[in-house]
Amino acid sequence: MTHWVSDLEKLLPAGTRRDLSDAYITEPRGQWSGSAGAVLAPRSVDEVSQILRFANARGIPVVPFGGGTGLVGGQTLPGGTPIVLSLERMRAIRAVYPAENVLVAEAGAVLADVQKAAVEADRLFPLSLASEGSARIGGLLSTNAGGVNVLRYGNARDLTLGIEAVLPDGQVIHGLKRLRKDNTGYDLRQLLIGSEGTLGVITAASLKLFPQPAASGAALLAVPDPAAALDLLALALARGGVSAFELISGQGLRFLVEASLPIRIPLDPVPDWSVLIDIGLGPGGDPADWFNALFAEAMEAGLSKDGVVALSEAQRTELWAVRESIPLANRAIGAVVSNDISLPLSEIPVFLEDCKARLRAMSDVRINAFGHLGDGNLHYNLFPAPGRSKSDYAHLSEALREIVTDEVVRRDGSFSAEHGIGRLKVGELERYGDSGKLSAMRAIKTSIDPMGIMNPGAVLR
Amino acid sequence: MTHWVSDLEKLLPAGTRRDLSDAYITEPRGQWSGSAGAVLAPRSVDEVSQILRFANARGIPVVPFGGGTGLVGGQTLPGGTPIVLSLERMRAIRAVYPAENVLVAEAGAVLADVQKAAVEADRLFPLSLASEGSARIGGLLSTNAGGVNVLRYGNARDLTLGIEAVLPDGQVIHGLKRLRKDNTGYDLRQLLIGSEGTLGVITAASLKLFPQPAASGAALLAVPDPAAALDLLALALARGGVSAFELISGQGLRFLVEASLPIRIPLDPVPDWSVLIDIGLGPGGDPADWFNALFAEAMEAGLSKDGVVALSEAQRTELWAVRESIPLANRAIGAVVSNDISLPLSEIPVFLEDCKARLRAMSDVRINAFGHLGDGNLHYNLFPAPGRSKSDYAHLSEALREIVTDEVVRRDGSFSAEHGIGRLKVGELERYGDSGKLSAMRAIKTSIDPMGIMNPGAVLR
Questions:
Q1: Which terminus of chain A faces fewer neighbouring Cβ atoms within 10 Å, N or C?
Q2: Which long-range contacts does B54-60 make (Cβ < 8 Å, 24+ apart)?
């Protein structure tokens, strides 16, 4: 192996090869770890092209590496990665076009930096998620990242106007268009987005910006049940301006206390179900009026009797802290099984009922269901009963996961709403995926990457 | 040929074969015509699958046929189409889910019928274009249709949650998901959308619905020039609620008179440039207030001094009639060259200047530039000078078209913004398309359709 590494190094500028560190070969939850032949951090699309051409000619596997924050093991090849291709040195914001609502960023740009560049141009880049301080644009696109603002602005796929990318044989796709409409051939942009580094390497993207809302606000409203939350969602959407609509379970709020997080729960008693609604309005819009009108409608329809509205930015941040602390509490308590699922909206209430009944028939796990209700996307996680530990459930965890996936799939839901397939869910994709789709995916993979060098074992075996 | 037709006919229910009529083998502008071995109109995805499996085994070309309204010849195989596969009998609205804002329609459903089904559920399906009375969902998706509401709601690609489709070998992709988030493998939906029937046949789609705006309005505002129109666009977008933002040239308005169309032009004098702004607001929104505030800002910034606001539906329809009559006037006068282009927004003013100067240096053509400014998408059409006729320019038309395409491409624009490639623009795609993209497209085409039966000659030669 050493031989080709030094050959490849000679082709590239000094400094391209990086020291190997754990960050490149482990993943955040410690479920995968590996080793690496060489970590290479090219500085340009041409250098990426050179590396891939070299690897393709010799059949050397390449794993593209962004911020390393993925949760399904797409960034780590167990057993060792010959080439870790890190985009960390391609982090330029190449250009901002405020009048066009477009920003062009390289794949290594950190999401928080892209958000900041947008704000400096008095614009909004709405992609927002927990790992935004370290996740990079290339990884976010290759996994079609979601987050809290998908309801209004869409996921990474929807926010991308064009990409620059390198195919496995080193050919470059120059597709950094700043166009809203372009019907000139197959949409390779959307094929590469979400392909998790198995078809090529995205090196830059032109991204959509939006006007910043003139006024924002948030509210936490208690609702009697998930069906009421959905009715409330419809009322809120009809008013316009909804950026996020998050479901919070009483279990999630009680976990904040159990995990001793310094978070004040603003509703008393703690409701079994509540929703966090975030809005951004145009000039002249008044968040207080907006929430008052919604709450009046909700009261009238029996959808909510209690709530708290945040009108200052400080209050809004405080409400969001409740929502954002739930994953922290989850981690502190330790999930037996975590799921990132989506369902047709109207199936959610019955799913929650049926799935809980089946799980409870098998086990005393506690269920924390929460997340992006507006998108039909829930994080549906199972935890040990009080006084018991995760290891007590080791023998059950597969069976419990299967119940959840089964209840999701039979309702035409998704067993991976925003995290992707990576290496974690390859088996589930084989088992639950549509055979026509899988067969077309395999044909495409073989045609674009005949040597099979790109992120082998991710998405497809 | 007759032999396989009768073999195939025997496999299918009686009535599947339709009488051949001109509609199946000509296109709206009469630029292509052909013949057909058999017109088949299956009633189910299984029948579509049977037809493709049969054709694939024998290498018989198939041209999928929707409403036949495409403008680039994608629906007609010159020299004769062995199988015209018409979706006309698969026109069911399979289901409407108002609470989910989802509608599932078969490929043969006419757009106007889908819009109507949405309205009956108190929802909006926002795809809207001139041919909506005959264009069918399958064709609209396979060409990624645009239209007037793309600015707010996106094009066909953005409005599609999932598809059911048949691959050339007869395999069915069951992808009618009603999910907003689903990261389980390559996005075949987006690959098939916009592939113009060259990779398979879309048989049904789950489509996004939206709340109907509580209040709507429109205004026609005179602007000094296209740069001012773009500044006005930014002000309008910051207010939220903009559904359409259309540029109208003085030439276009004068054509309405020249073509003797019964349309009153509501601004006097006729402005060299004007914009039609259409808005839809949520509950409590007041279109009069909205336009007053925008017009005050526009006056202050020197962006507009004259305009007319339509607040009743009758007035709004009247304003839209001005915009929608421009293509009719164009047809009456007869274009020398028509272009469907898009540009990065900020390039539009200088494009309009430069392109006009180059065209005028060669010819006395009149230019009518109009269309979806909010999307950077203009219909940029050239017409004979007064007193001259189209045939006077026959020797120049290719050179004139080349100037326009050249000015578009060097500014990173698109030579086919919403109409697609079809057969008309295959040469332009080869000449101006990115070589990496073309090479990947060819690899994908070969992998999915190795026998080359699907719409041969469209998009790729």
A1: N
A2: B54/B4, B54/B7, B54/B8, B54/B11, B55/B8, B55/B82, B55/B83, B55/B168, B55/B453, B56/B168, B56/B169, B56/B170, B56/B451, B56/B453, B58/B4, B59/B451, B59/B452, B59/B453, B60/B4, B60/B453
Three-class secondary structure of residue A237 per DSSP: helix
User: Which chain A residues are within 8 Å of B186, Cβ to Cβ?
Assistant: 191, 194-195, 199, 437, 440-441, 444, 459
> Distance between CA atoms of B393 and A280, rounded to whole angstroms?
53
**Which of 388-417 (A) contact B at CB < 8 A?**
412-417
Strand positions, DSSP E, A201-357: 201-208, 210-211, 215-223, 242-249, 273-281, 306-310, 340-342
> Is B186–A191 a contact, with Cβ atoms under 8 angstroms apart?
yes
Q: Which helix (H) or strand (E) holds B340?
A: strand B340-342
In this predicted structure, what is the pLDDT of residue A216?
96
Same fold, A93-211 and A215-409: no
Q: Do A185 and B421 touch (CB under 8 A)?
A: yes
What is the tens place of the pLDDT at every residue in B102-115?
999 999 999 999 99
Tokens of B150: 């793309």
A282: contact with B, CB 8 A cutoff: yes
SS3 assignment, position A385: coil
For chain A, the farthest-separated pair of C-alpha atoms sits apart, in whole angstroms, at: 74
User: Touching check for A186 and chain B: CB below 8 Å?
Assistant: yes
Please report, for chain B, the start and end positions of each structural domain, with discontinuous segments joined by +.
93-211, 213-328, 334-417
β-pairing verdict for A93-97 and B123-124: unpaired
The string over B278-298, giving b where at least 16 C-beta atoms fall within 10 Å of a residue's C-beta and e elsewhere, is bbbbbbebebeebbebbbebb
For domain A215-409, which CATH number applies: 1.10.569.10, 3.90.180.10, 3.20.20.150, 3.30.70.2190?
A: 3.30.70.2190
Instruction: Write out pLDDT tens, residues B233-263.
Output: 999 999 999 999 999 999 999 999 999 999 9
**From the candidates A96, A129, A150, A184, which should be mutated to test the interface with B, based on the most B CB atoms within 10 A?**
A184
DSSP 8-state class, residue A415 = S
Q: At what angle do helices B2-11 and B45-58 cross, to 10 degrees?
A: 150
DSSP-derived pairing of the beta strands B377-383 and B340-342: antiparallel
Which CATH code is given to the segment(s) B334-417?
3.30.70.2740
Using CA atoms, how far residue B348 sits from B102, B154, B224, in Å, is 36, 20, 15
- Of all residues in chain A, what percent are helix, strand and coil, respectively (each to 5)? 40, 25, 40
**A65: nearest Cα among A36, A85, A47:** A85
pLDDT score for B159:
98
